[in-house]
Amino acid sequence: MSSRPRRHGPPCGRVHRRAFLSELGMGFGGLALGAMLRRDGLVQAAAPQSHSLPTGDPHFAPRAKNVIWIFLSGGYSQMETFDPKPALNRYAEKTYSDTEYPNPLEDPLFKERSRAVVGGDRTHSKIMPMQVGWKKRGEAGIGVSDWWPHLGECVDDMTFVRSMYTTDNDHNAEFQMHNGRHKLDEQQPVLGSWISYGLGSLNENLPEFVFIGQYTDTRVKQNFDANYLGPRYAGVELSLDPDNPLPFGTRPGDVLPREQANQFAFIDRLNRLNAIEHPDDEQLQARIKSYELAYRMQMSVPDVIDLAQETAETQQLYGIESGKPTDVYGRRLLTARRLAERGVRYTLVYLSGYGEWDSHQDLKKNHARSCERVDKPVAGLLKDLKRRGMLDETLVVFCTEFGRTPAVEMRSASSPATGRDHHPHGFTVWLAGAGLKPGYVHGRTDELGFHAVENAHYVTDLHATVMHLLGLEPHRLDIPGRKRLEIDYGTPITDILA
User: Fold this and answer.
1) What pLDDT is recorded for position 1?
2) Is the dihedral of CA 173, 175, 181, 184 positive or negative?
3) Which long-range CB contacts under 8 A does 229-232 form with residues at least 24 apart?
């Protein structure tokens, strides 16, 4: 007599009533899987014995507690920002072959460090002069362009890395700056998710990883995607709208606080009963924690974004003033400071709109406008952190996805040549704060600003530096069954460490 397989669930694909209720999100569906606190005991007990989840403690003594990562989308020009190249003016209108320097297009590095996805190799060769003046600033005498008068006052607190490179020549390099992988390769969790995974929460009422900014291109979500770590380590989007600070997470106006608390308590009880039946269901444990966090965030997040609590002088420091071009950027950065103050581990500030710095044409006009928008707010953040003593434990990172070509971009015979093309071969980022040498320049590009030729660093070296300052060893965060390449771990840039 044949035996039928034993059923372990409801027939015909139907779900248990309890499972249905526990799946009911009450408006927190998107937030529930994205706003997670630390794993609790049940989840840790359910993990395979061969792989224990991080305890939340750093692997060694950290220099920093939290990170504010400022990202400028589109690719700002290294020559017109933080790596001035006067040789461009001397050889303006000439080709690379007409200069006294080796032709960078013939250097083996040109092919070694770039994998074209679209647009070919972007081999422009007619040199474009600098579009703005520059001067040495601060006691350190670091060259910065005239488009950054406010940040120029802060150079003695900043650490410049003038030798970064990526390998993607198109805007997927934006996501490469956060997850360390080329578009043609298997994608990885972003840096913020690794930090969220590796470290414990400093504030049970706020997420560990927050995203601040606006975008219309949904690909931007890749910048805070946890990938195989799971959605509980992804960044949580916060809005600066005081009437709706938590997208999909605001209590409906017709629901009383006590009523909502009872609803959450009811769902929590159902979920915990289900957890007894399914102790290995990590998503269920995640949902329990997310509902708890979502409820608490309704109280804590409005307080964080209430910038009216700040003095008029502080708001002015950030350029917050209705109608001013600096207003929204100042609000984003002041909110980031308030999040760091309250223990958020990692805040990604998507400061400019998607592709704003992508100046294929009219670079002079476009960069001047964009610099005016963010110069004062970013300088205000550094000055504010310093006077509050927060630079001793907060790390600020300021970057973009690649630089711009030293040569002018020739788009077509009918289009004026007024911009620069994408340039992954060498560009500048800077850091400030905990554990760094202030007023310091590391690395160098060649005289024309083309190749990173001294202490060149792939993007994961920047990641490794951030994790090192937080007390994390990337190799100790590996997930069984998930193969990572050695380049994914990067190497800390020890020369910039104090």
Assistant:
1) 44
2) negative
3) 229/189, 229/193, 229/194, 229/197, 229/479, 230/282, 230/286, 231/33, 231/34, 231/36, 231/286, 232/33, 232/34, 232/36, 232/286, 232/289, 232/290
Range of the domain at 136: 68-193+346-477
Q: What is the pLDDT of residue 253?
A: 63
pTM given for the model? 0.84
Q: What are the angstrom distances between the C-alpha of 213 and each of 120, 318, 333, 335, 336?
A: 31, 16, 10, 11, 11
More confident residue, 276 or 231: 231
> In the predicted model, is pLDDT for residue 5 greater than 50?
no
Strand partners, 134: 145
Helices (H) and strands (E) in the chain, counts: 14, 15
Helix, strand, or coil (residue 168): strand
Residue 242 binned pLDDT confidence (cut-offs 50, 70, 90): confident
Measured distance CA(171)–CA(74) in Å, rounded: 7
Query: Can you tell me the distance from the alpha carbon of 370 to that of 325, in angstroms, rounded to the nearest whole number?
Result: 9
Residue type, position 38, single letter: R
Q: Rounded to whole angstroms, how far apart are CA atoms 288 and 271?
A: 7
Number of domains into which the chain is organized = 1
Of the listed ranges 4-8, 60-64, 89-93, the least confidently predicted one is: 4-8
Tens digit of each residue's pLDDT (9 = 90 or more) over 376-427? 999 999 999 999 999 999 999 999 999 999 999 987 777 789 999 999 999 9
Three-state DSSP at 325 gives: coil
Q: How far apart are CA 396 and CA 295, in angstroms?
A: 30
Host H or E run for residue 382: helix 363-387
Q: Is 140 left (phi over 0), alpha (psi -120 to 50) or beta?
A: alpha
Domain assignment of residue 121, yes or no:
yes
For tokens 């703005």, what's the residue? 132
Q: What is the mean pLDDT of residues 58-79?
A: 98
- Amino acid sitting at position 464: A
376 part of a folded domain = yes
Cα 155 from Cα 134, distance rounded (Å): 14
**C-alpha span between 480 and 47 (Å, rounded):** 11
Q: In the chain, helix, strand, coil percent, each to 5?
A: 40, 15, 45
Can you tell me the distance from the alpha carbon of 432 to that of 82, in angstroms, rounded to the nearest whole number?
A: 14
List, for residues 422-467, the tens digit of each pLDDT value.
999 999 999 999 999 999 999 999 999 999 999 999 999 999 999 9
Q: What would the pLDDT profile of 340-365 be if each residue is shown by its tens digit?
A: 999 999 999 999 999 999 999 999 99
Residue with tokens 């960069």: 367
User: Which amino acid belongs to residue 195?
Assistant: I
For residue 484, is it within any domain?
no
For residue 327, is it within any domain? no
pLDDT of residue 292: 67
